[in-house]
Amino acid sequence: MSGLPDRKEAQVKQLLEGPYPVVPTGLAAGAAARGDRLLRRRRALRRFGWAVLFAAAVAFAVWASLTRPWAGPPTGISPPLEGW
Q1: Where are the transmembrane segments (predicted)?
Q2: CA of 41: how far to CAs of 24, 46, 67, in Å?
Q3: What is the per-residue pLDDT across 1-23, written as a single tens digit (0 to 9) for each?
Q4: Inter-CA distances, 13 with 1, 2, 10, Å
Q5: Which pLDDT tens digit goes with each residue over 19-62?
Q6: Alpha helix (H) residue ranges in the chain
């Protein structure tokens, strides 16, 4: 069991010391451009969602003010006149 940490430590040292892979020249610029596109798309979708939610709330308010669903249906029979 004592040999396992030394072997892992040697592998880590070899990775840290030793030849680094070549990074393509446009990799950072491409990643930044992709990240920018993702942020703009996410921001646009969030704005669109809020606009749809606001439009739905306005449409519901207009519908509710016109139809007044909280009021009961009108009765077809008027109450009898008493006291005349």
Answers
A1: 48-66
A2: 26, 9, 39
A3: 555 678 999 888 888 887 888 88
A4: 20, 18, 5
A5: 888 889 999 999 999 999 999 999 999 999 999 999 999 999 99
A6: 3-17, 27-67
